[in-house]
Amino acid sequence: MRAVELRTVSLLAGLAVIVGLIFLWQGNAYGLRMLTEASCLAIVALGLNVQWGYAGLFNAGIMGFIAIAAFGSMLVSFPVNPVFWQSEAPGMLMRMALIILIGGAVTVLLSRSHRYGVPKKLRTVLTVAAALVTYLMAQEALTPAAELIEQNSGFIGGFGMPVWLGWLVGGLFAAILAWFIGRITLGLRSDYLAIATLGIAEIVKAFLKNADWLTRGTLTVSPLPWPVPTPSDIGFVAARSAYLSVTAVLIVIIYVLLQRGWASPWGRMMRAIRDNELAAEATGKNVNRRLLEMFVIGNFIVGIGGAALITFGGIFDPSGFLPINHTFLVLIMVVLGGSGNNLGSIFGALLVYVIWTMSEPAALIGFHYGATWIQQAFGIAPPDDLATRALQMRVFVIGLTIILVLRFAPKGLLPEEVIKYE
């Protein structure tokens, strides 16, 4: 057995032992919840690995793509709100959509009018004016519709369709958003992409949080339907086991497809672009187009994983999307596991989430015994907020873990294996 294979087997076996001990310590229901959430984040990590590990694209706004995907999934799969459909609101929203459609088409046509001899300065002025008029007219049409919806039906509700279709639509929403961002930023320096994604993530969160007519805002939407029987139907252990089976199948499918794509001529081309864009461009490759492909594909996978994660929680809460949970934690998973290695991303997601969830109870136990010893030895009473301090230890433990890994394994615990072609 090669050293790389021995290392992989040893790390996976060690992680399996740790997970088994958690099941013995916390019970089956808790362990299954942890594994299911980790599996959803593993799908998100695979999507990020496509961007960062395959193409070298730094996505600092994963939270925004997860949020828009979760909204798309909720919109498709949540039960129909009959009060909304029996009111005048659908017709009013259709009028607003028609305004946006016509105004958007006019704006696009004006933005390309320089091809027909219109001066570029005049083209810019006309394009901005058309976009501004479209926005004002759409806002004027939306205001009475939103007020009517919030007063009569609360929010528009969903379409009551299958959950798996909602996950696909959520991934499609994330991919469309990625396409618009990528079209603007991928031709610029790489730091513009990071800034754009970070800003877009906050914009998406703010929009979903304040659009009460569309998402109920801070009032949240629950319970979200599951693709399998819920705990109220068959119990926590059986329901979470079924959900984990669904996410595990998704991980296997995505992993196999990514591995086959990475081993194909297309994958070799993407490695060439990642390692040296100038050389790849000199050979006739359309670098920006290929990077846009990777950015869209990666966010489609991120959207599916994010939709599955929020569905498992059973509640759509726009305020619950946090950068530390839905962006930086995923980045740590990919870097710690080994960017460019799909198996490393899965391993990193499981390991980091185990550390993230178990550091709080472990720290609380350590604080308890330490406070007891100090009180007995020195007569000093322990503070009253030990539980809060234990919760804050998660960030410290994750930070310490990533520092140690980067110090002793700079390329991750399961780094990408360099492939040489002769």
Describe this structure in words.
- This protein is mainly α and about 425 residues long.
- About 75% of the residues lie in helices and about 0% in strands.
- Helix 2 runs parallel beside helix 11 (about 235-260), helix 15 crosses helix 16 and helix 16 (about 340-380) crosses helix 17 (about 385-410).
- The protein is globular, with a radius of gyration of 24 Å.
- The two termini are about 25 Å apart.
- The model has no long low-confidence stretch (mean pLDDT about 90).
Could you write a compact summary of the structure shown?
Helices cover 77% and strands 0% of the residues. The chain has helices at 3-26, 28-55, 62-77, 82-85, 89-111, 120-152, 163-185, 190-210, 212-215, 231-234, 236-262, 265-275, 277-282, 287-313, 323-337, 342-378, 386-408.
Give the ordered list of helices and strands.
HHHHHHHHHHHHHHHHH
Instruction: Write down the Rg.
Output: 24 Å
What class, by secondary structure content? mainly alpha
Mean pLDDT: 88
**Biggest sheet character:** none
List its salient traits.
single chain; 422 residues; mainly alpha; 17 helices
Task: Describe the protein's topology.
Layout: H1 3-26, H2 28-55, H3 62-77, H4 82-85, H5 89-111, H6 120-152, H7 163-185, H8 190-210, H9 212-215, H10 231-234, H11 236-262, H12 265-275, H13 277-282, H14 287-313, H15 323-337, H16 342-378, H17 386-408
Helix pairs in contact: 1-2, 1-16, 2-11, 2-14, 2-15, 2-16, 3-7, 3-8, 3-14, 5-6, 7-14, 15-16, 16-17
